[in-house]
Amino acid sequence: MNFTRFNIITVCFLFFSILLSAQVKNIGVPDIRNYKRAEYKGATQNWSIDQDENGNLYFANNSGLIQFDGSSWTKYLLPNSTSVRTVKVDNSHRIYVGGYKELGYFDADSKGKLKYTSLSKLIKSKSAQELDFVWRIHIVKDEVIFQSFARIYIFKDNKLKTIEAPKRFQFSFQIDNTIYVQDNSLGILIYKDGKLYPLKGTTTLNNTEVWAMFKMPNNELLVATLENGLFIYSNQTLTPWNTEANAFIKKNSSLGGVSIKDKFIVLNSVLNGIIISDLNGKIIQHIDRKKGLQNNTVLTSFIDSKNNLWLGLDNGIAFINESSPFTYFGFSYDISTVYASVIHDGYLYVATNQGVFYHAWNTAFKEGAFSLVEGTNTQTWNIQVIGNELICANNRGAIIIKGNKAVKLLDKNGYFGFRTVPNHPNFVVGSNYNGFALFEKTANGLQFRNQIAGFNKSSILFELDNDYLWLKKDEFLYQMKLSDDLKKFKSIKIIHNLSKEKGIGSIQKINNSVYFQTNNHFYKYSKEQEVFYKDKKMTAVFKDIPVINSLYEDSKGNLWYVFNESLGELVKSPDGNYKNVVAPFSNLTGNLVTNYLSVNTIDPQNIFIGLTDGLAHYDSQLINNIVTKPNVFIRTFTFTNDTLTFGNQKKISEKYLIPYASNHVKFTFSSPTYENLENVEYSYQLDPFDEKWSNWSTISVKEYTNLREGNYKMRVKVRNSYGIQSEVDVIPFTISPPWYRHILAYIFYFMLVLVAIYSISYRIKMKIRKNKYYETIEQRRLYLEKESKIRQEQYQLEKEIEKLKNDKLQIKILTKDKELVNNSLQVVKKNKILNGIIHKLKEIDIETFDESTKFQFNKLNKSIVKEVNTDKSWKDLEKHIKNVHFEFLKRLKEKYPKISPRELDLATYLLMNMSTKEIAEIMNISNGGVELARYRLRKKLELNKKENLIGFLMSI
Predict the structure, then answer these.
(1) How many CA atoms within 13 Å lie on the side-chain side of 400?
(2) pLDDT surpasses 50 at 11
């Protein structure tokens, strides 16, 4: 919060020292916290209480020794689970206990856990058999004194010395460094230097049980007996202490008590709780079951390091916050929700939801409840003193009260409150359920004058200045102008915002001026300019304070404000400045009456604050220890199968080493801060795991899992109910790395890497050598392969050349074949022509020729016939074709053996791509004969219609 630093500085200035002298308030009941056996997990009876230097409390319980550290209760058993009757802690944190047939001590072991060491074994066997209950333990100098009914056991230098009782011991007591013990025959004895000496004049106590002795002024002693009351021992004489305290003890029996700083005496009773008296025997406080104690039989009482009172009860444990500046009037005083309070004519009047109650102001509040004022038993919103008259704002109306009665009903309308009209001191405006009403001060007291017309809304939040009546209702502010005769409102203005800031927080009078507040910015109203203007001085006062929702100026000029259901006070100093005080009121958070801030400041020692469950009394000048820094402890540190406990011994600076397998850790925290435990909060940080401190929380346990190896610091701090933070408690610890991340492992890894590097280097060198060898072989192989490839390519090239040559030759042959065929065809055509000529010549009649012509004609005919008969071109052609296409004809014949020679010729002609006409001429058949021959050939070759005959022949 923004105000924390300022708040702490202010409070520390007010309460710069801790409790120097004890104070016990004589008004109201201090805050009481009861602990039932279900909480502390022990038996009902608690016989003795003590506290160590760390603030831990120890209770001697019927079930064993019980420890309370502010967060948790722990029980420690004695051998045979015997009950514990007394407990005492020395400066070394050794906890001595005594019980049934057992005496010894608890001490912290190496892990901080309390372990018991029995001293009973040091008792001689005969005495050990006679050992009964050990009732008291005292520590004087270097001696530890255990007292039972039969004897005293003195433990010193690890030896046990015994002093027998003259007859029978009762109880023993320690005042400063002197030990007193009661014997049933010799009275009270003084222990000195290992011996007992009778205290003269005390044998008259032989027939009664002495339960306590107290130091008194003037070297006197106060003796408390079980049934005979209280006695003063002075000048070797016992005389009854005739006081209020003595009367109480005689009536209720005494079970001892405790002194508070030698200024007050707490007296335990059997029947009626405790009383706290001053050294004159006047009862300051009486606390019993009716006032909040869970049991009226108090077996023991103890004042802790902060001067708070602990009670060991016959059934349970009780904590009484005596050091607080607050006491309370609640159910035990028949007080419920309080809306206002005032002192008038010697009475304290309280306005509650059940009516107006009163109690005499000058009479002690230790006994007796508040009484109801007759005629007011309904919801009462306010009670005020106006013109020396007491008037209450009640559901039934505006009522005048005198003494214990409602004596006059001024108006039947229900009322919220009243304000005097400025510039008209004899008139009072009352806020009622139907608007506002006017009252007049007369010789006969207040009188109702009239209901103010023109407005029917109202609330408790209204103020008046010289010009206007201001009302805050819901989110609006109403500015209302009263008529001159005060009978009506002549103008009403509704205001939504005071400035650019939205909303209106509160309306209040400070230093007789009306202030309007929103978001802690305070405004006044200028009638001349008709505007709200900011009051910088008052705004600056609230600069570092959280946004308030209510504000009230008390009779001393102090400003009381409410924020977040919490209360704060700005204490006005003589120079006009304000000092902020918040810490003392933190315990009231959540108990204030919403929208009805009730503070009645009578004087600095008597301030009454209305609560939802009663009335709080606050003494602002009571020096107390509320601002002392609380202590915090990391109580336990748990990891796998092991727990370290802290706070049972003096702080030891040590760093803890934890194996990696135990990297799941758990911490518990405690703070021996016993006031308002429900508001004690912790914050923690594991450095370096947590980047920042955790949020404040009441949870006092924290676990961390799967932490990595490394150095850690667990830090914890506590904040008490007053907002004061402790110093940080720190536990450093180290989590060892797992074996595979240990430094030795890394050394091994390093050496392994070196070996690996050497091995790899060696292998690389060998491989390089080997690779070079294989590279040479490979190069040789590649060379040979390349050479072989070249040779192969050369061979292929030669073959390709040969093929090309053959192809060229074949082409030439084909060309020649074509030329030959063409020539042959020309020859055939020539022969046909010549045959035609021959036939033509035969048809010529040569008889008509002369001989010479005839001769020439015959010679020509013979020459032509000879030419035809001697031409062998066709036979040569057939022979040539068969030679050239021999392989083709062979493959064709092998594949199709049924093919005829004539068909072979046809296939050859087709392969030579000869036309049908050319084939017909060569084969001496018609064109149709050629087609028929082609058809027959296709059948022989088993070709379908879609297959090309010439292409098929070329593929063979």
Answers:
(1) 16
(2) no
What per-residue string of b and e applies to 271-297 under the rule 16 or more CB within 10 Å gives b?
Answer: ebbbbbbbbebebbbbbbebbbbebbb
> How does DSSP classify residue 132?
-
Contact 320, 32 (CB under 8 A): yes
* Residue labelled with tokens 């008037």: 391
Q: What is the pLDDT of residue 239?
A: 96
Q: Is 251 left (phi over 0), alpha (psi -120 to 50) or beta?
A: alpha
The pLDDT tens digits of the residues spanning 518-551 come to 999 999 999 999 999 999 999 999 999 999 999 9
Are 464 and 508 contacting, i.e. CB atoms less than 8 angstroms apart?
A: no
At 467, give phi and psi (nearest 5°).
Answer: -120, -30
Give the separation between CA 85 and CA 784, rounded to whole angstroms.
110
Q: Are 564 and 548 in contact (CB under 8 A)?
A: no
pLDDT of residue 19: 37
Element (H, E) at 350: strand 347-352
Q: Which of 458-462, 496-500, 901-905 has the largest mean confidence? A: 458-462
Please, what is the Cα angle at 815 between 814 and 819, to 5 degrees? Answer: 115
3-state SS assignment for residue 586: helix
Average pLDDT (233-237) is 94
**Separation between Cα atoms, residue 317 and residue 319, nearest integer Å:** 7
Between residues 914 and 118, which one has the greater pLDDT? 118
The pLDDT value given to residue 791: 84
Enclosing H/E stretch for 359: strand 355-360
Q: What is the DSSP letter of 900?
A: -
Length of the chain: 956
Enumerate residues 6+ apart whose C-beta is below 8 A from 453: 487, 488, 489
Helical (H) or strand (E) element with 324: none
Whole-angstrom Cα distance, residue 905 to residue 877?
12
DSSP character at residue 77: P
Q: Which residue has the tokens 């910015």?
A: 521
Rounded CA gap, 612 and 607, in Å? 17
Under a CB-based contact definition with an 8 Å cutoff, are residues 85 and 99 in contact? yes
Average pLDDT of the residues of the chain: 88
> What interhelical angle do 873-884 and 886-895 show, nearest 10?
70
pLDDT in tens, 340-390: 999 999 999 999 999 999 999 887 776 667 899 999 999 999 999 998 999
Kindly compute the dihedral angle of the four CA atoms of residues 597, 598, 600, 601, in this order, to the nearest 10 degrees. Answer: -30
What 3-state DSSP class applies to 935? helix
Say how far apart CA 863 and CA 838 lie, in whole Å: 10
Dihedral angle of Cα 272, 274, 279, 281, to the nearest 10 degrees? -10
Q: Which residues sit opposite 183 in a β-bridge? A: 169, 187
Strand order in the sheet with 274-278: 254-260, 264-269, 274-278, 283-287
What letter represents residue 448's amino acid?
A: F
Listed residue (444, 405, 436) closest to 418, CA to CA? 436
Q: Residue 328: name the closest of 28, 558, 108 by CA.
A: 28
